[in-house]
Design goal:
Layout lengths: L1 H6 L5 E3 L7 H9 L12 H9 L2 E4 L2 H18 L6 H23 L7
Helix pairs in contact: 2-4, 4-5
Length: 114
């Protein structure tokens, strides 16, 4: 990426499959019936570096799906009597919101630049 940025300044680069795969959500999924024993992703420090170069888009959807899935699995496992999506989706949405905040502010450095 450094070489591309040097040779083609301002050339827009998109990183596909760049989720960091937060291990707390992988663990949550595995502890509540999921099977993702070897899930790994791109380290956040590498994403932070990429965001400083000519990268204009970094795809992190897998991280969001892990947060949603892990939270829903944990909620339903811990509350087997619950079936109202409003109850189990509320904490899942909150975790996604916090994860997006973390990625935008702490990792990608793009908060407030829209």
């Amino acid at each position: 990426l450094k070489e591309v940025s040097k040779r083609l300044p301002g050339f827009p680069i998109v990183l596909h499959g760049s989720s960091s795969v937060p291990q707390e959500y992988v663990k949550m999924i595995n502890e509540h019936g999921g099977k993702m024993p070897n899930a790994i992703g791109v380290p956040e420090d590498q994403l932070r570096e990429a965001a400083k170069l000519s990268v204009c888009k970094i795809n992190i959807d897998s991280d969001l799906r892990l947060a949603m899935t892990g939270t829903v699995r944990a909620f339903l496992d811990e509350h087997p009597d619950k079936f109202d999506p409003r109850e189990y989706l509320k904490p899942a949405r909150a975790n996604i919101k916090e994860l997006v905040r973390h990625k935008l502010v702490d990792v990608l450095g793009c908060a407030g630049k829209a």
